Protein 1
Amino acid sequence: MAQTSASPTPLLKDELDIVIPTIRNLDFLEMWRPFFQPYHLIIVQDGDPSKTIHVPEGFDYELYNRNDINRILGPKASCISFKDSACRCFGYMVSKKKYIFTIDDDCFVAKDPSGKDINALEQHIKNLLSPSTPFFFNTLYDPYRDGADFVRGYPFSLREGVPTAVSHGLWLNIPDYDAPTQLVKPLERNSRFVDAVMTIPKGTLFPMCGMNLGFNRELIGPAMYFGLMGDGQPIGRYDDMWAGWCMKVICDHLGLGVKTGLPYIWHSKASNPFVNLKKEYKGIYWQEELIPFFQAATLSKDCTTVQKCYLELSKQVKAKLGNVDDYFIKLADAMVTWIEAWDELNPPKSSAELPNGKGK
């Protein structure tokens, strides 16, 4: 069973930032206090920058609103979405820590089947600190968890695994559904707690949800761009999906791992399906062309850093998706701006290079 109690000494206390996008007071942090209080928070305030966001006392945090984003990035602030939770990726950019955990403000502490509170952050850290197995599927799921191992027939040459770049958590109560599914299943709730963590195989894409997500910023940070969404854009609610597709292509190329499963959070609030449909409707039919594009995407051997991979991918987006809609030309340019802004705030280190197809 996954451990659910807080550690006496919090794991990675000085190496991890918690990034929270919000438009409202952060009262939800009270429930998370036992698990989050030792860590530094980066709050990205969306919407009206003149509004004051209340943060409960006792938390160590920095808060950025749109004025701060414009001041820090100047003209490059155009790559950061407005009036959309995609603005959270600004927090990834200004962080100086090795790891990021990001969570939405309508996500509460879930309970495991025994009734214990789940320390989602601790489980993400465990996922990130243990290897992944993207090249060969283990039928007992994560072989590095207590009580599991590699099954008979698993190649010994692959048992060392590869570094884990991303830990993708799940949700009890309100599932992360698209608008059409919300409309036909308005009362559906997820009550299934599956005690499993697994590596998503190489060559397999998945729909990444940004509301309960951990990642190694040093390994994959520049690929975690949540795109152009929200105000002034023709699409919303595809920010985390876009980041997930780009990230997975790059992880596959660089030989990095992505895990999904535990930990669960309690997703408390269903968003309005009619509002969601308005945001999603272009994406719902665009994705039928986007998915084959990412499935077929390959990166050259010269792409030895995440930045190089991302810039090459942006060229392919412009060349191959520009005919789907002009939006993708604009998005490809924003991908380049994002990398330029990232490198300005985070000067590249030569040690970030990974041999093609091998872990660090």
Protein 2
Amino acid sequence: MALRTVLVSDVPSLPESVYGLSEGLELSKPNSFRLPGFSVIGHRGIGMNVLQSSDRRTRGVKENSILSFNSAAKYPIDFIEFDVQVTKDDCPVIFHDDFIYSEENGIVNESRVTDLSLSEFLLYGPQKETERIGKTLMRKSKEGKVLKWDVDLDDSLCTLQDAFEQVEQTLGFNIELKFDDHIVYEREFLVHVLRAVLQVVSDYAKDRPVIFSSFQPDAAKLVKELQSTYPVFFLTDAGNEIHNDERRNTLEEAIKVCLEGGLQGIVSEVKGVFRNPAAIAKIKESNLSLLTYGKLNNVGEAVYMQYVMGIDGVIVDFVEEIIESTRLMMIRPPPLSSAPSKDDDGAITRPEFSQKEIAFLLKLLSQLIQN
């Protein structure tokens, strides 16, 4: 399940000085990028937290933390995915939600992450200095309840620089560039934020594989304009949620965004792919890679279905379980009609299924998609 990164080709781009990038920012320009094989990618490290869930696995390790990232690194994966925002004093930090919550004297306080300075942001939750007591960290659920952020193994909040310096060096980073869905951003602001992120990547990435991704189509295109070293993927709900920006609503629109911006791939909500499997061929014909995310990626059979369909990789919460289940399914002897073959290097290739067989397998997943 290895995912090997060969960095993107040299394409014409505006001079870095136009965007105010420092003269010391040196990004190499290799020849090509591809996603060989099939990859399991850890979501926010070893998995996202769902505080109201009865499944203890979703509250095992604090998401988007150094502890979570290094926990994921213990398994045979090549990438983790995490969320980056930039504080008001231009420091890229790792945090998913647009707003951060704390409670003091029974009163819940709300702050937008990007309105905080780095020092203010780091005051939330456990502190690196054990003698210090941080603000009680809370989180608002999708149902609107503000809950204490309780997990079995807690950790302090961290910066992008912390991740580069403290996470196992061989583990690749899929850096999601986070922006508020409800805000229309000016180009100048996006450039300013992306410049701050790229500077940290330039200073600390070294040889670590890096992929950028974003739901914000203009940000995705801009980060490709600003650099040509690292591949950029466009994130899409693929119709599971409807947005005012039409570019975010279908896989067909996602393909357009990628082709217009010279991006390297798409990260789609998995249900959108299962509902529209014909889009996979269009994506491949466009020379784009395809990854997926979503709850169904925590179901081994759904992951194996994607492997059969030719999807390049999946972002998952239950890293250990999915690694094990996919390993077992991929080595299980298949029917003679779909027996896997070996390529010249001896590696197992995907089994071949007819369109009727794939249609039947997709039908079996239809009930899962409805949930």
Protein 3
Amino acid sequence: MARLSTLLTSVLALSGTSLASAVFDLLPSNFDDIVLTSGKPALVEFFAPWCGHCKTLAPIYEELATSYESSKSKVSIAKVDADEHKELGRRFGVQGFPTLKWFDGKSDKPEDYKGGRDLESLTAFVQEKTGIKPKGAKKTQSHVEMLNDQTFKTQVGSDKDVLVAFTAPWCGHCKSLAPTWETLAADFAAEPTVLIAKIDAEAENAKATAKDQGVTSYPTIKYFPKGSKEAIPYTGGRSEDDLISFMNEKAGTHRVSGGGLDAMAGTIAALDSIVAKFTGGEAIATVGKEASAAAQGLKDRYAEYYVKVFGKVEQNQGYVEKELNRISGLLKKGGLAPEKIDDLTSRSNILRKFKAVAQGKEEL
């Protein structure tokens, strides 16, 4: 049995396959046949065993290869030890490690990979080149937008409030921040004018932006208000709650951990003060007219809802309680789109303002 295992290992080594790895190992003896003339495209990493950045990339590259293993007849995810096989490195102009190049399987003129070294960027690149979707354990969709030199210019200064983390693949603090950053992006996913983004500051297609922004350490977090390209450095804590509070303050949003809305979402202070007059004994019709006049000068989408509630309460004193119960039932039932949940939550918050006033009158 031991002899059979040794023989199997030798056969796999000759074929360029490792028992423990989905990444195809290339050698001078098989490089041309597999990469240049097979007609099958390949992403090739030129690495050195002693290279720290290569060691950081290794598990990510392995995961990439595993996700495309079922499509290995159509695309190769491979690597070559360019320190041991220096002739291959020189042949393709490799000057540093790791260097990633894309070969179309038909020529010896590869395309340099200039994207980020995270799994999402690498996967997107291979999928764009081949049209092949990766397989494997289904992951939660990421709401973090990876920016590069080109997309940074279009997103920053637009109609969005943008929070950007400048990171590096080898940075330990960046790895610690990553899950929190993903959660933060999910919390704000339903906000169309808020963007939680990330830039791989060492990626070839993003280095210029990192330099322009004066990034010298990682992670560096910067906030860009909508309509402005002037950054505001973020110097607060890196917990989810800290980051949510910062964005709510800057963007005027009302998000809480988990992506829901707080008790102030949808409410309008100017109209709340008019609602409060109802406790002073003023007739609902009189207060309602005042609210209607005030709402006309407001651009807030929920201003008209205040006016609607005033009208309903004038017709039926029990409307607020009944409507709150109806909305509560819809929210508990589930199956609603995020936008609908936000809308119903905001309406509930406004209705509670009226309910509080009604309770105050009863106490009086």
